[in-house]
């Protein structure tokens, strides 16, 4: 794993949180809350501040791609302050004093998620995923709960440019669908945590069937990411009231929209023509039903 450059360090720290152990998560939280301060701490000091061990701090640094903690300290020192106003990002939206504060903090968190995802998105993986979807006979789209809404949005757009897709937003349905895939097909799997059992099982079965698995997730080290052929990471910092990981959802929307546009560009005029026809289909007046 290559160490992140200082400009994208915060995004990599965010991406590491969902799959981190409890002790590593405390280290990551300290680095995210005060990167400049953490850069001044020795490995012993950081371990004491986070209630962990020196070994945990070193393992966390290495899991991020650094040779050790000294290299992580240098990256923290060079990363500079976050682009967003610190006051908006240090508190949770639910802690704001008034509705304007809630909106401002939510806007900052959503913006942070989108920009962090854009900085860290693996463009080679995105290109490979787009090539796979473009060439596929069939693309299955899997997601449960909030992730299912994201999968449904991609499915709707994909159909509008002429792709053949199947949407599955229930675990057993995804498992059944994965059993019918063939080599050359694609399973596009959306899961914030990357650990939803039925979704992970469907991804594994799809790969066993010879399909290409594309994962959209916030957890780089989770089971879904290790199963997939191509991993597209979405990042975002979540807070207590944010059911369904809505900050990361903003990042995942960027990822899926980027994939959709990349595929549409490969389709070229065929996509444009299909879009025109589908627009006409919904815009043309339809006869009204007569009420009895």
UniProtKB/TrEMBL annotation:
One Pfam family this sequence matches: SIS
MF terms (GO), sorted A to Z: carbohydrate derivative binding; DNA binding; DNA-binding transcription factor activity
CDD domains membership: SIS_RpiR
Phosphoprotein is among the record's keywords: no
Residue ranges of domain SIS in the record: 129-269
Keywords recorded for this protein, A-Z: DNA-binding, Transcription, Transcription regulation
Domain of life: Bacteria
Biological processes, Gene Ontology terms: carbohydrate derivative metabolic process
Domain HTH rpiR-type: start-end pairs: 7-83
Protein name: DNA-binding MurR/RpiR family transcriptional regulator
Biological source species: Kineococcus aurantiacus
């Amino acid at each position: 794993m290559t160490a992140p450059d200082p400009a994208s360090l915060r995004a990599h720290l965010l991406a590491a949180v969902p799959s981190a152990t409890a002790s590593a998560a405390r280290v990551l939280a300290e680095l995210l809350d005060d990167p400049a301060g953490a850069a001044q701490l020795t490995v012993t000091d950081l371990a004491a501040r986070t209630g962990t061990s020196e070994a945990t701090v070193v393992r966390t640094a290495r899991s991020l791609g650094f040779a050790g903690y000294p290299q992580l300290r240098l990256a923290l020192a060079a990363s500079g302050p976050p682009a967003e106003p610190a006051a908006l990002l240090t508190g949770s939206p639910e802690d704001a004093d008034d509705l304007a504060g809630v909106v401002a903090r939510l806007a900052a968190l959503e913006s942070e998620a989108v920009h962090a995802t854009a900085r860290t998105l693996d463009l080679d993986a995105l290109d490979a995923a787009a090539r796979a979807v473009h060439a596929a006979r069939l693309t299955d789209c899997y997601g449960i709960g909030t992730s299912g809404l994201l999968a449904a949005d991609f499915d709707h757009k994909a159909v509008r440019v002429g792709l053949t897709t199947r949407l599955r937003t229930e675990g057993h349905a995804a498992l059944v669908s994965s059993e019918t895939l063939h080599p050359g097909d694609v399973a596009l799997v959306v899961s914030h945590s990357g650990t939803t059992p039925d979704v992970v099982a469907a991804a594994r079965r799809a790969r066993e069937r010879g399909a290409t698995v594309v994962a959209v997730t916030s957890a780089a080290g989770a089971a879904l990411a290790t199963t997939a052929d191509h991993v597209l990471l979405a990042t975002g910092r979540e807070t207590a009231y944010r059911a369904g990981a809505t900050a990361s959802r903003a990042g995942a929307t960027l990822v899926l929209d980027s994939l959709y546009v990349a595929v549409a560009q490969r389709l070229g005029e065929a996509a444009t023509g299909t879009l025109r026809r589908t627009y006409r289909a919904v815009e043309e007046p339809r006869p009204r039903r007569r009420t009895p």
